[in-house]
Amino acid sequence: MLITRCVKALTALSVAAALAVADDGRPAPELIGWKAAWSVPAGEDALQSRLSGDNLLLETPGTVTVRDADTGAIRRTVSTAVTNPTVLSTEAGILFFTDSTKGVTNWVVHAYDLASGSVLWRHAVPASENGDLPQIQVVGRAAVLYQRRSGLLSLDARTGGVQARAGDLPDRDGVITGTSRSVMLLTRCKNGGVQLASYDPRTLRRNWTRPVTTRHTAADDGARLGYEQPPEGFVVADDGAWIGYEQAPEGFVVADVHDERFLFAEDGTPRPISDLPISHGLGGNGRWSMPLEVGRHPDVEDSAGFDSNNAWPLPGFLISRDRDTGRLGAFPLDRPLPHYITLLGSTSHLALIHSDAHVTAFRPVYGRPTGPVALGGVPPGDWPDACSLLTPRDVAPGARFLPGRRSLGRLTLPKPVTCDWVPPEDDRGVVSLSVSWVSPDAGALFAAAAGQIKGHESFDYDPTIEGEGIFSYTAHGPRGTFGATLVNVGPVIVHLTSPSRLVQRLAAARVRDNLMARYRPGERVRPPARTGGWTHLADEGVRADPVVDGDVVYAGADDGLYALDAATGRMRWRSGPAAPMLVDGLLYGARSDGVAAVDAATGRMRWNRQFDASDIVIQAGGVYAGVGFTHVIALDAATGKQRWRFRVPGSLGNVAVAAGTVYVSSQEGRVGSEQGLLSALDAKTGALRWRSRLGAANSIPAGYLTATKEAVFAVTGARVVALDPATGKARWRAGFGDLVRYDPIMIGGTVYLGDLAGRTYALDTASGQERWRLTTAGDSGLWSVTESRGTVYIGGQDLHALDPETGQERWRRPLTAKVSVHGDTVFARDEGGMLHALDAATGAPRWRFQTGGHFQTLPVVADGLVYVGSSNGNLYALRATDGLPGPNPAELDRRPG
Q1: Which residues have CB under 8 Å from 563's CB, separation 6+?
Q2: Which end of the chain has fewer CB atoms < 10 Å from its terminal CB, N or C?
Q3: What residues have CB less than 8 Å from 103, skipping those under 6 apart?
Q4: Hey, is 330 helix, strand or coil?
Q5: Nearest CA among 218, 207, 212, 215 for reference residue 196
C-alpha cells in the first residue's frame, strides 16, 4: 500500500516524561536515538530518491535503481526512455513513474514490471489547467490516479486498461491514500470545509463521505495566503492550509489538516485519536510513531551556533509523535546534520535520509533513559553548568558571569546551558558560551561537524588549532561574518563566541583544560610547538598583501591595519582597516573610502582623505586614484592636500601611473556601441597631454591597463592597443578570439595577455607580433604570469613552466592556482586555500600548507619566513624550509592557571 508520508513541522511541544515499567520495576527500553546503519550514493537532488514500501528508488537519467530499503542492496536496475521522472513508486510488483510530454501540463504514467524490468503499459493523463501532477494509489489489482481537474481514474494495475472514472469531485486540491479495500480522498472544499471520502478502487463508487471539522477558520485562511511550500506528502489548498495523511496501522486512516489529527476506521467511523493502535510504533512499548521530520530540535527556539540550515545545536534529530498524547519527541542522530537534508520516509525499523548526495539509513537505538528521551537518554544532571566551564581567572581579572538559559527550548535542565563572561572594561573580551550537546558519541559528532565545515564553501576554519578537542571556524553569509569555536572533551560539546577571535581562542583552550580536569584528570595537552613561525589572528579576513619593512610586517585586514613584529608576530599597534602601502619610507593605508598616511612607528594618522576610491597608485610624491565613476584626483603624498581633479569623458575605467604621466581609461557612448578612450595627464598639474580612441569596447568597461615609460597597453573587449607614451599614437593593435579579462603583463620585451577561453598570448612589445600562445581547458579566474631566472611561469587551469622565447614547456603540474616566484621556489595558491611550494627548476613539490580559508594575498618571503593572509582572518608566518606555522604569540605568553 502506497502511503503518503507526513513530514509536517508542527507546533513544538514538550516531551512526555511518562515511561512504561518493565517486570523488574525498571523503566522499559525506550527509543533514545538513531544510529547510521548503511549509506549508498544518490543524486544531488533529493527528488531523485524515493522510498516506496520496502523499496528505495534512485533515479538517474534513463535508469531507475531499485534497492532493498532494509539493506541498501540493489534489487534491480530498470532502463527507461525517460530522463527525468517526476513521481516514483512501487506497489504490487510494479514500478510506476510519471513524466511530462509538453512542459508541465501533459503527463504520462508508466508502469514497469519490477521483476523483469519490462514495460507493462503507459497511460496519458489529460492536460490540466494548472499542470498538477497525477497521484497514484494501488489497491489490490487497481491503480487509481487522481488529478484535481480530471478526478479519479481506475486502471488495471497489470494491463493499464480503464476500469472506471469519477469526475464529480470537489474542484479543489486533494490527496489520496489507500487501505486494503478502499481508496481515500481527502479534499478541502470551496466553502473552506474538509471532507474525507472512501471509494471502491475498481468501480470508483463512493462508499461514504465524512466531514472533517477543524479549528481552521476563514480568518486563518486569509492570514496564510502565500505561505511557504508545504512539506513533501502534503497538498496546500488555495487558502494555504496543509492537508495530508500520516502512517497508520491497517484498517485505520489518520488525516492531518493544518495542525490537527483525525482518526477514522476503514468504514468511516470517526474515532478519538487516543484509539489509534500503537502496534505500529517504535520503542519497547510502541509509544513513538515512525519519524515525521528531520531537522533541529523542535523545542529549541534559538540556535547556539551558525548554520544556514539551522541544524545546530548538535546533533540532528528525527522527530516522532507520542501516540498517547500526540506530543512531539526529538531523538538525536549519531552525526550532525548537513545543510541540505530530506527525510525520505521509514520502514518498520529504519529511517532513510537524503543528504550530501547519499541516502543513509538510520536504525533506532533503545535504552533505559533516566531523563527525557529528547536528551538521548543522558540524564539532565549530566549536562554541566555552562558558567562552571570558565573562571574569572580564565577570562580577565574582575570578569563576571551572567547565567543564561536553563532549558533546551521547552526542556528544563537543572543548570544553565548558556553563560556570558563579561570583563570589567573591554567589550571585545566578552565570551559567550553554550553547552551544545552532551552524549556518549560526542567525539564522533564533533569530528563529523568539523568535516562538514571543512567541506562547505561558505565556511573557513583554523588549522593551527585543529585537534586536541578544539575546532575554530568562520562563516561568511549575507549577514556578514560569524566566527565560533567548538570544544569537545568527554561527552560534552561546547560552543564559544566572542567579538575577538584571540579572546575566543584563548577561552576555548581554558574550557578544554577545565573539561579535561573533569573528564580526563591527570592528562595535559601539549603546549603549542615553537617552530620559528607564528600566526596572527585578525577578527576578519586578511585581504591585503603583507608589507615587510625590516623587523616589522604590516598586515591589512577587514577589521584593522596591524603592525607586527616580523620575527615573533607580537602586535606593535593597530589602526583602522586599510591595505598597507610602503612608498619612499612612508606608510599609507588604502581603503575603498579613501587613503591615509600613517606613522609607521606608532600607527597614528598623519592625514586622512575620504572619497569613493578605486585604483589607488602612490608614486613620486603623489597619490593618484579614481573617484566614483567619473573623476581622477591627485593628492600630495606628504600632506594629503589635493593637487588637482580631472573629469574623464564617459565612465571611469582604470588608472595607471608611469614616468610622470597618469593614464586613465574610460568608456563612452550608447549601450551596445561603446568606445574605449585613454587619457594621458600630467602627474603634477593634471593637464591633458593627449587622448586616444581605443576602439569598440564591446560593452565591457575599458579598464585593463598597464603602463611603463616605454609603452602603454590598453584593453577593450577582445583587443589590445599599444600606444606611444609621448604622443598617444597607436603603435600596433591586436585582436583575439575571446574577451581579454586581465591586465596586460609586460616582462622584458614581451607582453602577456589572458582571455576568457583560457588562452595566454605572448606578444612582442615593439611589433605586437605573436611569439607563441598557450591554450588550456578554459579560464579558471586564477590567471597569472611571472618570470624568474629565464623561465616564465603561468598559472591557471594548470601550472606551466615555459621557455619565455619559444613557449616550449619545461614542466607542468596539475594545479589550478595563481603563482608567484621567490628565489628558487614557486608558490602556487589554489582555490581550496592550499599553498604549494615547488622547486622552480623541476616543479617537484617541497611542501604544502592548508590555510583553512581562501587566499586574499600574495605570499611574501623575508628572513626565512613566508607571510600569507587568508579569508579566515589569519596572517601566517610559515617557516620557509618546510611550511610549518607557529602559534599565536599570546598562546606562548599564556601560563597555565
Answers
A1: 552, 553, 554, 571, 572, 573, 574, 600, 603
A2: C
A3: 131
A4: strand
A5: 212
**Nearest-CA neighbor of 865 among 822, 836, 803?**
822
Strands 317-321 and 328-332 turn out to be: antiparallel
- How far apart, in whole angstroms, are the C-alpha atoms of residue 285 and residue 279? 9
Distant-in-sequence, close-in-space partners of 552: CB < 8 Å, separation ≥ 6 = 563, 564, 565, 566, 572, 600
CA–CA distances in Å: residue 27 to residues 285, 345, 368, 707: 11, 29, 6, 82
List, for residues 10-58, the tens digit of each pLDDT value: 222 122 222 234 445 555 678 888 999 999 999 877 778 888 888 999 9
Cα 498–Cα 504–Cα 507 angle in degrees, nearest 5 = 125
- The DSSP symbol for 371 reads S
Is 7 in contact with 233 (CB distance < 8 Å)? yes
Residues for the chain: how many in total? Answer: 897
Q: What is the DSSP string of 838-897?
A: EETTT--EEEEEE-SS-B-S--EEETTEEEEEBTTSEEEEEETTT------HHHHH----
Phi, psi dihedral angles at 457 (to 5 degrees): -65, -20
448's enclosing H/E stretch is helix 442-454
Euclidean distance between CA atoms 116 and 317, whole angstroms = 39
DSSP at 47: G
Whole-model pTM: value is 0.77
Partners of 635 in beta bridges: 623, 642
**Going by C-beta distance under 8 Å and a sequence separation of 6 or more, which residues neighbour residue 25?**
none
What phi and psi, each to the nearest 5 degrees, are found at residue 743?
-65, 140
Exposure string for 544-556, b = 16+ CB within 10 A, e = fewer? bbbbbeeebbbbb
Position 403 confidence tier, pLDDT thresholds 50, 70, 90: very high
Tens-digit pLDDT profile for residues 13-24: 122 222 234 445
**Which residues of 206-315 form beta strands (DSSP E)?**
206-212, 235-236, 242-246, 252-257, 260-265, 270-271, 293-295
DSSP state of 215: S
